[in-house]
Amino acid sequence: MKSNTLKENKDFRRLYYRGKSEASPCLVTYVMKSRRSETRIGITSGKKIGGAVQRNRARRVIRAAFSEVEGRIIGSFDIVFVARTKTTEVKMQKVLSEMEKQLKSLGVIQ
Predict the structure, then answer these.
(1) Under 8 Å CB-to-CB from 59, ≥6 apart: which residues?
(2) Are 92 and 65 in contact (CB under 8 A)?
(3) Strand 4-5 to strand 40-44: parallel, antiparallel, or no bridges (unpaired)?
(4) Predicted confidence (pLDDT) per residue in 40-66, tens digit
(5) Three-state secondary-structure class, residue 4
């Protein structure tokens, strides 16, 4: 199942306030059940993370990790991943294992 992206600021804010969240040193995940037919994801990386190169790498690593997990999602969700300063320093495998852990505890994947 291909996932779409969240682009609207109001969608991100809705997840921050009403979504369930899990955090780790390299990733924060916000999840909310969606009434749509597809899963939508958003990835943010703030100025704290570093320059544009570091922020883009963080987003790229998160996107790559999500593409590994994507097929195991049950149902449709809105998901926001927030990169942290650690995200730029770790390999994709580390982000992937954190992401799996968080999505399991939030009930998104088996």
Answers:
(1) 43, 45, 83
(2) yes
(3) parallel
(4) 999 999 999 999 999 999 999 999 999
(5) strand
